[in-house]
Amino acid sequence: MKKFLLLFVAILLTVTLVACTEDESSSSDKGNQDSDTNASETENNSSEPEDEEDSDEQESSESQTLSIGDTAEVDGIKYTLKSVSLTEERNEFADTEPAMVVKVEYEVENGKEDEIPVGADLEVYDGTGNKMDSYPLDNSMGSLQPGKKMQATQHFGIEEGPIEIYFKPLISFEDPAIFSADVE
């Protein structure tokens, strides 16, 4: 029985790797076709000013800096940072005694077709660049059904501000949305 299970897993892994390899090669072929098409379009439209490309690059770099009130979508999930504030509330049973406890309030909107977990979808880095641990207060944990929204809260112990907040679904391979916020 163990040999059969091992053989089954090996076959499944092989099929998965082959499928992924085929997807990547077809994507790169399509990318090559697209770049050829874009190159010919660029040659035909060479009278366009190059300043337009520079302004597009500036807009994309500016749009990567998000702050309170902004919304970002990562892998079909929308995150809106509602507020970041310090709290004097402490948990007497906490293992740590951070200099400050910050309360992060955000909204999650599930744009996927499946239920998603909420509560493990953000990371916080303090002003020194250190990843901060969640602080045990009234933190939101649970799941969210497709097409629904949830107001969530997470607390983190930090040493100093400002902070960076990385939003990303628990099971995702996309880059996170990065928000920055001052802590006073």
Strand order of the largest sheet: 1-2-3-8
Major β-sheet annotation: 4 strands, antiparallel
Mean of residue pLDDT?
A: 78
> Which stretches are poorly predicted, pLDDT < 50 over at least 5 residues?
1-8, 17-28, 32-63
User: Ends: how far apart?
Assistant: 62 Å
User: Which range best describes the helical content: under 10%, 10-25%, 25-40%, 40-55%, 55-70% or over 70%?
Assistant: 25-40%
Q: What is the name of the CATH architecture of the largest domain?
A: Sandwich
Q: What is the ordering of alpha helices and beta strands?
A: HHEEEEEEEEEE
Approximate shape: globular
CATH topology of the largest domain: Immunoglobulin-like
Counting DSSP H or I runs of 4 or more residues, the number of helices is 2
Please report the first level of CATH classification, the CATH class of the largest domain.
Answer: Mainly Beta
Query: Number of folding domains?
Result: 2
Biased composition (Acidic residues): 48-60
Keywords: Signal
Signal peptide: 1-21
Organism: Ornithinibacillus massiliensis
Short description:
With 184 residues, the chain is of the alpha+beta class. It has helices at residues 2-44, 51-63; strands at 71-74, 77-87, 100-110, 116-118, 122-125, 131-132, 142-144, 149-158, 163-167, 177-181.
Account of the 3D structure:
This is DUF4352 domain-containing protein. Residues 35-47 have a biased composition (Low complexity). It comes from Ornithinibacillus massiliensis. Keywords: Signal. The chain is globular, with a radius of gyration of 22 Å. 30% of the residues lie in helices and 32% in strands. It has helices at 2-44, 51-63, and strands at 71-74, 77-87, 100-110, 116-118, 122-125, 131-132, 142-144, 149-158, 163-167, 177-181. The longest helix is centred in the N-terminal third of the chain and has 43 residues, at 2-44. The model is unreliable at 1-8, 17-28 and 32-63 (pLDDT under 50). It folds into 2 domains: 2-48; 66-181, Immunoglobulin-like, CATH 2.60.40.1240. The protein is an alpha+beta fold and 184 residues long. The chain has a 4-stranded antiparallel sheet with strand order 1-2-3-8, with no helix packed on it.
